[in-house]
C-alpha cells in the first residue's frame, strides 16, 4: 500500500512540473454602487504587492480588465473618491478559468477632510447592509477548503459559531439549539424548497446536497435577528447565489468522485451584449456502478441533479437573469436486525425538487432601482414500506405520495435618499398548490388508514420595509418590519426588526439586534385528518397560529489586524405559540420535531427558550494559511405539559470546533504555480437528548416503544470527530487539474445517539454517529 501511495505522489508531482513558461490569467469585473446599482466610472483597481505593478480603472460601464496576472492567490483593492475602499483578499487565480468579479462599493458618509478615517468593510461581513448581527458570508473557496465539507455549504457552515451538524450524517443545520426545520433556503433572492436529495416532508436538510459548488457565487448565512426582508424562518437563513458565466469565452469543468460524475459549461451568448450562461449536471457514481453491474447490494442510492443561470443585460430594459435547479432520487432498501441475517423492513422511496425563476433589475435614475422576480418550484415524494410482525409476517406500514407546485411573485424597491439614508421595501406573493395522499398503519399492524387525500391551494403574502441610517462612518442603525399572512387559515404575524453596529474605537465594534420571527408548518399539518382509536377528526390543526420566536443579540467584534477577527455574541430567544399535543399527545412539542408532519390534534400553548454565548477567533486566508476556532455554550429548553422547563431534543449544551488549513506552492523554483492544500477540522459536540426506550412495552409490541413519561430526559454520548482534507491543484497552460481526498470522521469514532429495539435479538441497540467516510475526487478545468 505504501508503494502505491508513493508512486501516485511521484506521478502527481512530475505531472505538476510538466508545465512550461510563466502561467498568467485575466481578472475581469464590474464595479457598482451598492445602494443604487449604478456603474462607478473611474474606480481604481490594483493588484496588491504585484511586481511589476498591475492596476487599471473602470470604463464608462464600470467594467475593468487586469491582464497577465500570475496564477496563484492575489488580493485586489478597489478605491474611488467618496466611497469606502474595498479589498478582496486571497482570490484564487487559476490557469484554466478567468476570474470574474462583481464588486459593490458603499458611499462614504465622511467629508474629504476626514478621508483618513473612512470605514472599510471587514472581511467575513455580508453584503446585506441591513444585517448587523449573527451574519456570515462564505465563498466557494471556503466550501471546498473546509475539511469534511464535501463542497456542501451546509456541512461547511457547521464550523461556524452556534451551528451543530447532525451526528448521524445528514446535513441538517441546527442553529442555537433550534430544530433544523426553522431554516429558510433562498436562491437568487427567492424562497426555494429544501435543496437536498432523499428528504422527507417538512425537512430542511438531507444526506446529499443538490447545490453544486461550481455554480455558487459568494453567499450568506444568518443565525439570528435577521433583517426585515427575511421571513418564514425562526432559526437560520441560507441566502445562496449562482454566479454569472464568463461572457467572453467558453470554459468547462468535469469531475468524478464518490458522490457523482458531473460536468459544467459556461460562456457567452449571442442574444445580447455581455450575455452569458452557466450550466451543471451530475449523476450518482453508485448508480453508474449499479447500472454496469459492478456493485450489487440493497439500497443503492440513485440520484441526478442539474442547475443553470442565463444572464442577459440590455441597453434600456434593464437586466434579466433566468435560473433553475433541480434533482430527482430514489432508493429501495431492506433493513436488517443486528445479526444482519433477518430482514425486518422494506422500503421504496423516490423524491425530487425543482425551481426555475426569472429576475429583472432596472435602474430608476441615480437614486433608486427596482428588482422584480417570478419563480416556480415543485417537490414530490413517493414512498411505500412494510414491516414484519412478531409472527414473522409482513404487513403494510405506509403508502404515500406528496406533490407541490409553488408560484411566487416578488418585487423590491431600493431608494437611496443620501449617503446616510437608505430605504428598502418589498412584497412577496405565493400560491402553493398541493396534491397529497397518505395511508398509514398506526395501531394494530394490519391495516392502512388514509389521513390525507386532498388537493388544493394555499396562499401567503409577505411584506417588509427597512430603513438604514448611517449618521457617521462608524455607526449603522437599522429599523424595519416583516409581515406574513397565511390565507389557508387567515393567520398573520407582524414582526418588528432592529439592528445597530457601532465602531466605538479603531478595530472595535459593538453590535446589537432584535426582532420577531416566525415560520409556517408544513401544509400537510394543517389539512391532515386524525383517524385513530375509532376517532375521526377532520383537519384538527387547520386553525393553528404561526409559531413565533423573539430574538435578542448583543455582540462584540475586534479586528487585531487585517487577517484576524475575534467575535463574541450572546443571545436570548423566546419562542411562543408553539404547537403542542393535547390529550394523549400532550408529550409532543413542535420544538423537538425535525421533519415530517403531525396528524394528531395540537394547540398553540407551548413555550421555548434558547440562550447562550458564542466565541470565535478567525484568521482569514493569508500567507498560505487560515484558522477558525469556535466555542458555543448554550441551553435549549421547552415547557412540557406540566409547565416544567426541560431540555429539548437539540440541547447539547456546548460545541467546540477547531479548523485550520495550509497551502504550499509546488513547482519549478522560478514559477511555482501548483498548490498542495491540507486542512483538518476537530470537533467536540455535546450529546443531544433522547427519550429512553421502554423495553417491556417494546417486547409486547415487537417494535421500538419509547417511555413518553421521560421525554428527552436521557443524554446521548458526546460526539468527537476529526475531518481531514488534502488537495493538489496542478496548473498548466489553460488547464487546471484538482485531486482531493476529503474524509469525515477519520478516527471512526462511533458515539451512541439514540436507542431502538432489536426485535430478533430482544435487546436495546443504538444508532451511532456517522463513521469513517472518505470522498476521493478528481476535477479538470479547461
Provide a concise account of the structure shown.
The chain has 782 residues and is mainly beta.
Structural features, described:
The model is unreliable at 1-20 and 111-120 (pLDDT under 50). 6% of the residues lie in helices and 56% in strands. The protein starts with a helix and ends with a strand. The chain is mainly beta. The protein has a 22-stranded antiparallel β-barrel. A five-stranded mixed beta sheet has the order 8-15-16-11-12. The protein has a domain at 326-781: Maltoporin, Chain A. It has six helices and 45 strands.
What are the main properties of this structure?
45 strands; Maltoporin, Chain A; mainly beta; single chain; disordered N terminus; five-stranded mixed sheet; 782 residues
- Looking at this structure, what is the CATH superfamily of the domain at 326-781? TonB-dependent receptor, beta-barrel domain
Number of helices: 6
* CATH arch. level architecture of the domain at 326-781: Beta Barrel
* Ends distance: 32 Å
User: What structural category characterises the helix and strand content?
Assistant: mainly beta
Compute the gyration radius: what is it? 27 Å
Question: Sheet with the most strands?
Answer: 22 strands, antiparallel, barrel
Set down the secondary structure blueprint.
Elements: H1 2-16, E1 24-33, E2 44-47, E3 55-57, E4 63-70, E5 72-79, E6 86-93, E7 99-105, E8 135-138, H2 140-145, H3 153-157, E9 163-165, E10 173-175, E11 183-187, E12 190-191, E13 196-197, E14 208-209, E15 219-222, E16 236-240, E17 251-257, E18 261-268, E19 276-283, H4 285-291, E20 302-313, E21 319-336, E22 343-363, E23 368-388, E24 394-416, E25 421-440, E26 449-472, E27 475-486, E28 491-505, E29 508-519, H5 523-527, E30 530-532, E31 535-537, E32 547-561, E33 564-581, E34 602-622, E35 625-639, E36 645-647, E37 654-668, E38 671-685, E39 689-690, H6 695-701, E40 714-715, E41 719-732, E42 735-744, E43 752-758, E44 763-768, E45 773-781
Parallel strand pairs: 1-7, 11-16
Antiparallel strand pairs: 1-4, 2-3, 2-5, 5-6, 8-15, 9-10, 11-12, 13-14, 15-16, 17-18, 17-45, 18-19, 19-20, 20-21, 21-22, 22-23, 23-24, 24-25, 25-26, 26-27, 27-28, 28-29, 29-32, 30-31, 32-33, 33-34, 34-35, 35-36, 35-37, 37-38, 38-41, 39-40, 41-42, 42-45, 43-44
Amino acid at each position: 500500500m505504501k508503494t502505491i501511495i508513493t508512486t501516485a505522489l511521484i506521478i502527481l508531482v512530475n505531472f505538476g512540473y510538466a508545465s512550461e513558461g510563466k502561467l498568467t490569467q485575466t481578472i475581469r469585473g464590474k464595479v457598482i454602487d451598492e445602494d443604487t446599482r449604478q456603474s462607478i466610472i473611474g474606480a481604481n483597481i490594483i493588484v496588491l504587492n504585484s511586481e511589476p505593478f498591475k492596476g487599471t480603472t473602470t470604463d464608462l460601464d464600470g467594467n475593468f480588465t487586469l491582464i497577465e496576472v500570475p496564477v496563484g492567490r492575489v488580493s485586489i483593492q478597489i478605491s474611488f473618491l467618496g466611497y469606502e475602499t474595498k479589498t478582496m483578499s486571497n482570490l484564487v487565480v487559476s490557469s484554466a478559468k478567468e476570474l470574474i468579479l462583481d464588486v459593490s462599493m458603499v458611499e462614504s458618509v465622511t467629508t474629504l477632510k476626514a478621508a483618513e478615517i473612512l470605514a472599510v468593510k471587514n472581511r467575513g461581513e455580508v453584503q446585506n447592509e441591513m444585517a448587523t448581527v449573527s451574519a456570515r458570508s462564505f465563498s466557494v473557496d471556503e466550501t471546498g477548503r473546509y475539511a469534511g465539507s464535501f463542497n456542501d455549504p451546509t456541512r461547511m457552515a457547521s464550523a461556524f459559531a452556534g451551528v451543530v451538524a447532525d451526528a448521524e450524517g445528514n446535513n441538517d443545520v441546527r442553529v442555537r439549539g433550534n430544530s433544523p426545520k426553522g431554516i429558510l433556503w433562498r436562491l437568487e433572492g427567492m424562497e426555494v424548497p429544501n435543496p437536498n436529495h432523499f428528504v422527507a416532508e417538512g425537512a430542511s436538510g438531507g444526506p446529499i446536497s443538490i447545490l453544486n459548488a461550481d455554480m455558487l457565487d459568494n453567499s450568506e448565512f444568518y443565525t439570528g435577528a435577521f433583517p426585515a426582508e427575511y421571513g418564514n424562518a425562526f432559526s437560520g437563513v441560507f441566502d445562496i447565489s449562482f454566479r454569472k458565466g464568463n461572457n467572453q469565452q467558453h470554459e468547462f469543468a468535469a469531475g468524478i468522485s464518490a458522490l457523482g460524475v458531473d460536468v459544467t459549461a459556461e460562456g457567452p451568448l449571442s442574444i445580447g451584449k455581455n450575455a452569458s450562461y452557466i450550466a451543471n449536471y451530475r449523476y450518482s457514481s453508485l448508480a453508474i456502478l449499479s447500472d454496469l453491474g459492478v456493485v450489487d447490494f440493497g439500497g443503492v442510492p440513485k440520484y441526478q441533479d442539474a442547475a443553470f443561470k442565463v444572464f442577459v443585460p440590455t441597453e434600456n430594459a434593464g437586466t434579466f437573469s433566468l435560473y433553475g435547479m433541480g434533482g430527482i432520487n430514489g432508493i429501495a432498501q431492506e433493513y436488517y436486525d443486528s445479526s444482519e441475517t433477518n430482514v425486518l423492513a422494506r422500503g421504496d422511496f423516490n423524491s425530487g425538487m425543482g425551481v426555475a425563476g426569472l429576475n429583472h433589475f432596472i435602474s430608476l435614475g441615480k437614486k433608486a432601482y427596482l428588482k422584480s422576480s417570478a419563480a416556480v418550484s415543485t417537490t414530490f415524494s413517493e414512498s411505500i414500506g412494510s414491516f414484519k410482525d412478531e409472527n414473522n409476517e409482513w404487513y403494510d406500514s405506509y403508502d404515500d405520495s406528496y406533490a407541490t407546485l409553488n408560484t411566487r411573485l416578488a418585487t423590491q424597491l431600493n431608494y437611496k435618499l443620501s449617503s446616510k439614508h437608505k430605504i428598502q421595501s418589498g412584497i412577496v406573493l405565493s400560491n402553493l398548490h398541493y396534491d397529497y395522499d397518505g395511508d398509514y398503519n398506526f395501531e394494530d399492524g394490519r391495516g392502512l388508514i388514509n389521513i390525507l387525500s386532498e388537493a388544493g391551494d394555499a396562499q401567503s403574502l409577505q411584506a417588509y420595509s427597512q430603513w438604514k441610517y448611517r449618521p457617521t462612518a462608524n455607526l449603522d442603525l437599522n429599523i424595519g418590519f416583516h409581515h406574513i399572512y397565511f390565507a389557508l387559515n387567515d393567520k398573520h404575524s407582524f414582526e418588528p426588526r432592529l439592528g445597530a453596529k457601532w465602531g466605538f474605537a479603531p478595530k472595535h465594534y459593538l453590535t446589537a439586534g432584535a426582532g420577531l420571527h416566525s415560520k409556517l408548518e408544513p401544509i400537510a399539518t394543517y389539512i391532515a385528518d386524525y383517524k385513530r382509536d375509532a376517532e375521526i377528526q377532520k383537519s384538527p390543526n387547520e386553525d393553528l397560529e404561526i409559531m413565533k420566536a423573539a430574538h435578542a443579540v448583543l455582540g462584540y467584534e475586534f479586528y487585531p489586524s487585517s487577517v484576524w477577527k475575534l467575535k463574541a455574541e450572546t443571545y436570548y430567544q423566546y419562542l411562543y405559540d408553539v404547537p403542542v399535543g393535547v390529550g394523549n399527545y400532550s408529550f409532543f412539542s413542535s420544538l423537538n420535531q425535525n421533519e415530517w408532519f403531525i396528524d394528531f390534534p395540537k394547540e398553540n400553548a407551548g413555550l421555548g427558550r434558547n440562550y447562550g454565548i458564542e466565541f470565535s477567533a478567525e484568521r482569514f486566508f493569508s500567507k498560505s494559511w487560515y484558522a477558525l476556532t469556535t466555542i458555543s455554550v448554550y441551553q435549549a429548553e421547552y415547557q412540557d405539559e406540566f409547565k416544567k422547563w426541560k431540555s429539548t431534543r437539540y440541547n447539547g449544551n456546548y460545541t467546540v470546533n477547531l479548523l485550520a488549513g495550509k497551502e504550499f506552492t509546488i513547482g519549478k523554483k522560478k514559477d511555482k504555480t501548483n498548490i498542495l492544500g491540507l486542512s483538518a477540522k476537530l470537533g467536540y459536540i455535546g450529546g443531544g437528548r433522547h427519550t429512553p426506550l421502554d423495553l417491556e412495552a417494546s417486547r409486547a409490541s415487537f417494535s421500538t416503544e419509547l417511555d413518553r413519561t421521560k421525554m428527552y430526559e436521557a443524554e446521548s454520548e458526546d460526539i468527537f470527530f476529526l475531518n481531514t482534507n488534502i488537495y493538489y491543484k496542478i496548473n498548466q497552460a489553460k488547464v487546471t487539474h484538482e485531486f482531493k481526498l476529503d474524509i469525515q470522521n477519520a478516527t471512526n469514532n462511533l458515539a451512541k445517539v439514540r436507542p431502538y429495539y432489536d426485535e430478533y435479538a430482544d435487546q436495546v441497540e443504538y444508532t451511532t454517529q456517522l463513521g469513517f467516510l472518505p470522498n476521493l475526487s478528481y476535477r479538470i478545468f479547461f
